[in-house]
Amino acid sequence: MNKRQVNLLKSLIIEDEYLPIKYFSNKLGISDKTTSKDLKEIQTIINSTGAKIDKRRGLGIKLYYTSSQLDVLNSKLNKMKVSIGDDDLIHRRIQILLNLLINTDKYTTIQKLSDKYIVSRTSINNDLNEMEDKLSKYNLKLSKTLKGTKIIGSEINIRKALVFTIQEYAKINPNYITEYQNIRHEELNINQINTILNHETTSFFENLLNHIESKLKLVIYEPYYTNLLTHLLIMTNRIMRGNYISSNSEVSDVVIVRNNDLYNIAIYMIEKIEDKFKIKVSKEEVGYIYKYLTSIGLSYDDMKNKEDKKHDMPHVHFTNNLIDIVSQMSHRNYNIRVTLYERLLLHIKPMLNRVKYNIQIKNPLLKDFLKEFKEEFLVIKIACMLVCNKLGINMISDDEVSYILTYFISEDEKISETIKIRTLVVCHSGYGTSQLLSTRLEKAFNNIEVVDVIASNSISNMDLIDIDLIVTTADLNIEKSFLLVSAFLNEIDKKNIKNFIDNILESKRKSFSNYHIKNIEIESIDDISDIDEKELVYIKNNLYICLINSLENLNIQYITEKDETGKRIFVINYSDYKYLSKALRKIIREFVTEENINEKH
């Protein structure tokens, strides 16, 4: 058993009641599907002890065992040598997948892979089954014959899968580019590639991209730089092995050149690569590189050209619609934020090219965004989906959504900096020390606006409804919160005030999302037959959302399939974006932020 399965078995032993699979999934941070697979393997392993995992519909699962069986189980756990950890398992699967993608002209065998990675044939079979799901996303298949196993599919799809796999590898191996080269060299005769060393090969492409930046007089930022570098490495390695993009592939469609400078750069890069590696690159490859260049966020003077704008209106429509919808969903007028519009416009133009050409980018901070900005991420994701549907564009990936989210988060921080904290200063006398305190407050905090300075005995006559912060040198008998400080405003006072201001700003930011959110009900229903699976929006684990634009706002309908591992679907009938936003936040707070899903729904 691996470490995850050992922890699952220990959890089963500890719990003495039926619990849903979701409970164990959340506890271990894995999917329900993985938990179900692990349960089957655990049952097989513990069969000899007589212990049994019992499943009951509507209740969940429970491990049954006697005292003597428990002794045997504990003995097994103590003696058990835990197999490779999750990271090692991921590492092995990525390495196997990379090898298969690099060597699409060769068969390999399960026994060969089993010997190489020192694991059982069953483990390799499980690895290959896992890979088939990933490969299907790129219209690739695993061919399993008497000769062995290899990947079959078009050259362009193989390259797309390679780019994705290498980017996944980056999460567990920072030196993934060099590692990719190492794997390639293990499979090739070094003489066949002109004895080019890993470091030299990578350095050549890095220098080439640096030269391109100089020619264009701009910087290619991450993740676009790494994405382009990875593509060039893959393209060159594939061509050196005799793998070319066919003339009838999707990439060979007529390339409409709207930027001659970029197209000439693509030709220049190909010529340099041909000269360095003594290979011949087809015109289809030039078009492919050109598409990459249009998809990496470059900006030039000719973007201002009217003809260019005429062709590229979709990014203007997308940006305007997105800002308008997010403004309504956030109760914040982003439409007047000119800088946000301009920055988003520059980002969305190449993003739509990536969507058009099916070029994927990865955001290494995606998990952090999902953890720290759950509500904001879902709001932006739904807003993007609504715009994509309206403009007839394929839905963008979560990685793309997270990059768009950064622009709105950044803008929120700028807005927060301009918000003035309406502050009332209170002292015993109402003058003297209060004036000193007032001056020191405004000097220490540029977002504080002292609206009045009063004596403590006058506080009962003040209307405090519009006051954000009360700073006083005297104790007050009022219901509203206040901060008691010294007249000289020492460092401890400043720290307390800063924390208080941070809480005020956070409260202001969330004030709309909290407004009337408790009035939104979630009602359970058995089934809705007319739900289209393709219209479901994935949230987390088995949670999905179905949006229905209707004439009125209705309670959220919550559907749970009878199967323990089935989808949990929230149907939101909405007539306006404000309600939609509140409904989304309600779902996030009650079903995603908690460790366990609230079963009462």
From TrEMBL:
Keywords: Activator, Repeat, Transcription, Transcription regulation, Transferase
SUPFAM superfamilies, per the entry: PTS system IIB component-like, PTS-regulatory domain, PRD
Keyword Transcription regulation attached: yes
Domain of life: Bacteria
Domain PTS EIIB type-2: 421-509
GO molecular function term, any single one: protein-N(PI)-phosphohistidine-sugar phosphotransferase activity
Coiled coil start-end: none
Gene Ontology biological process: phosphoenolpyruvate-dependent sugar phosphotransferase system; regulation of DNA-templated transcription
PRD domain location: 196-303, 310-418
InterPro entries according to UniProt: BglG_antiterminators, Mga_HTH, PRD, PRD_sf, PTS_EIIB-like_sf, PTS_EIIB_2, PTS_EIIB_2/3, WH-like_DNA-bd_sf
Protein name (Swiss-Prot/TrEMBL): Transcription antiterminator
Naturally occurring in which organism (per UniProt): Senegalia massiliensis
Lineage: Bacteria, Bacillati, Bacillota, Clostridia, Eubacteriales
